[in-house]
Amino acid sequence: MPWYDGRWHRYSEAERREFGRLKAEEMSKKWHAKFISKTRLKQERCWTDAMIKRFLRPSKCGIPGVNAYLRTSVLKAEQKPEVQAWLVKRTKDRVVPIQPHQTVTTG
Question: 7-15: which pairs have CB atoms within 8 A and are 24 or more residues apart?
Answer without folding.
Answer: none
